[in-house]
Amino acid sequence: MKISKLIGAAAVVALAIGLSACAPSNTPVIAPVTVDVGDLQDGTVELVVGQVLNINTGDLAVDSYSGEVEDTSVAEFVKGYEQDGATYNPGVKALAEGSTQVVLSNSDGGIEDVTFTVDVGK
After folding, report:
1. pLDDT of residue 89
2. What is the per-residue pLDDT across 101-114, written as a single tens digit (0 to 9) for each?
3. In this structure, are residues 36 and 111 in contact, taking their beta carbons and an 8 Å threshold?
4. How far is it, in rounded angstroms, from Cα 96 to Cα 102?
5. Which residue from 33, 43, 74, 100 has the fewest beta carbons nearer than 10 Å?
6. Cα distance between residue 89 and residue 37, in whole Å
7. How far apart are CA 5 and CA 46, in angstroms?
8. DSSP readout, the chain?
């Protein structure tokens, strides 16, 4: 009888440990902010640390854009690409609180640079 109780208790502990791995974490999921590239010129995008600006490039290739971030401690440019039939837009990831200017350039000729500000809060 004692052995069966011990085995039962061990099974309950194992189940509890296993289920705790399925519990949601305390880290909230932060939705990206999506903006058309044509709407960014001279504007300001507000993000929180860990959030991403998803840049919709419209008819232009997602990998035709490059970006320069003035203060790389505040944000970083993420190049767009295509992989396995999926398209990933270029973007800007918020790294730390602050404000920085971003300049997007396009490798396709005749397209002017897009300059905007990213403000990152908590």
Report:
1. 97
2. 999 999 876 689 99
3. no
4. 15
5. 43
6. 11
7. 58
8. -HHHHHHHHHHHHHHHHHHHTTSPPSSPP---EEEEGGGTTT-EEEEETT-EEEEE-TTS-GGGEEEEES-TTTEEEE--EEETTEEE--EEEE-SSEEEEEEEEESSTT---EEEEEEEE-
User: 2 forms bridges with which residues in the sheet?
Assistant: none
* pTM to 2 decimal places: 0.76
Q: Residue 37 sits in a domain of what CATH number?
A: 2.60.40.2020
**pLDDT reading at 19 higher than 60:** no
List pLDDT tens digits, range 34-91.
999 999 999 999 999 999 999 999 999 999 999 999 999 999 999 999 999 999 999 9
3 φ, ψ to 5°?
-65, -40
Query: Domain for residue 7, yes or no?
Result: no
